[in-house]
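Notes from hallway chat w/ T.B., transcribed later so I don't forget. T.B. wanted the structure written out for a chain they're using in a teaching module, and asked if we could keep both sequence and structure tokens in one place. Agreed to drop them here.
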Amino acid sequence: MKSVYLIAALAVLGTAGGAYTVMHMMHGEHHEMTVQAKAGQLSIGNATARFLIEGRPGAVFLSIDNNGSDDKLIAASSVEAGRVELHTHSMDNGVMKMRAVEAIEIPANSRTELKSGGYHIMMFDVETMPEKGSTVPLTLTFEKAGDVQIGAVVGKPDGAHNH
């Protein structure tokens, strides 16, 4: 089922990096997204990266608002990683498994969330573990909208303990 968004407000919260915040109303709930880049009718934002252990892959999560026709995220790359893949999680005999996918559908007039436990971007062979608060550059390639450059802000991993 496709979700239809009504633009409720557009607020400019500063122009650092060209980011701005868009608020949407979906099924009576407000959903906010900090837009970091646009490609055609796509707005990409809320990009964050999570790296848990030095030498292990990292994950990138983000939101894509599509105010046009269907599209697909078909690839991602980064100068910070030897290999970048599109991934999803699935249940297999009661075990959560991660697997690479060829593309991520971006339905018309909807928001697609790349998040923990669902679709996400995996970064492999990262030479140096990025520091919290730094930005990891990514190029996202869409079937129709083409390439778009974004920066994913490195955050504290979920489940990390404060010491």
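Follow-up for T.B.: The first strand starts at residue 6 and ends at 11. Might be a good example for the class.
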